[in-house]
């Protein structure tokens, strides 16, 4: 779905600021009905454009090791590796990349020993994984995704 109008973008922006914001409050701020916001939200969610998620700071929940994994994967096994990673509860994020790695994943495990075991027992044995790089994260300073792209200078209305 790529045909988003200004109202769709405004609803998304309101939810990016506060994902728990009431539809009634969003409707009032945008001067539309609550039903309109609810229907737009449902459509955005059903088409996969919008997903509401709660993010907890792993460092505040428990002692743990947050790590970034960069994987080189053979093209024939790419989808299978992605699917396998997505099935593991330790994995919080998976994406396909262009550049030094083909697949990126973020994992949360109890400690360095568990990170080593996860790599050795669950990631490296996957068919098609040619190389792995694990980079431990020391602290997360910002966790936010803004799905809006800036308008080209010629289109800007400011």
Question: If you had to describe this structure to a student in words, what would you say it looks like?
Answer:
The protein has 158 residues and is α+β, with helices and mostly antiparallel strands. It contains six helices and four strands, in the order H-H-H-H-E-H-E-E-H-E. The protein has a four-stranded antiparallel beta sheet with strand order 2-3-1-4. Helix 2 crosses helix 3. The longest helix is centred in the N-terminal third of the chain and has 13 residues.
Task: Describe the strand arrangement of the main beta sheet, using strand numbers.
Answer: 2-3-1-4
User: Share of helix among residues?
Assistant: 25-40%
The tally of beta strands, per DSSP, is: 4
Helical stretch count? 6
Residue ranges: pLDDT <50 for 5 or more in a row?
Answer: 149-158
Q: Which overall shape is indicated by the principal axes computed on the Cα atoms? A: elongated
Using only C-alpha atoms, the radius of gyration works out to 20 Å
- What is the assembly state of the chains in this entry? single chain
Mean pLDDT: 86
Q: How is the secondary structure organized here?
A:
Layout: H1 6-17, H2 23-30, H3 34-46, H4 58-61, E1 65-73, H5 78-87, E2 91-96, E3 103-109, H6 112-123, E4 129-137
Antiparallel strand pairs: 1-3, 1-4, 2-3
């Amino acid at each position: 779905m790529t045909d988003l109008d200004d109202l769709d973008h405004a609803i998304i922006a309101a939810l990016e600021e506060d994902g728990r914001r009431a539809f009634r409050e969003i409707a009032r701020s945008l001067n539309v009905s609550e039903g309109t916001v609810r229907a737009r939200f449902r459509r955005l969610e059903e088409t996969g454009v919008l997903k509401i998620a709660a993010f907890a700071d792993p460092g505040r929940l428990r002692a743990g090791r947050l790590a970034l994994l960069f994987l080189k994967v053979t093209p024939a096994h790419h989808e299978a590796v992605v699917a396998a990673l997505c099935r593991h509860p330790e994995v919080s994020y998976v994406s396909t990349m262009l550049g030094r790695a083909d697949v990126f994943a973020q994992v949360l495990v109890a400690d360095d020993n568990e990170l080593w075991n996860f790599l050795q027992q669950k990631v490296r044995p996957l068919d098609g994984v040619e190389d792995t790089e694990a980079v431990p994260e020391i602290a997360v300073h910002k966790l936010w995704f803004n799905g809006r792209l800036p308008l080209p200078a010629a289109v800007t209305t400011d």
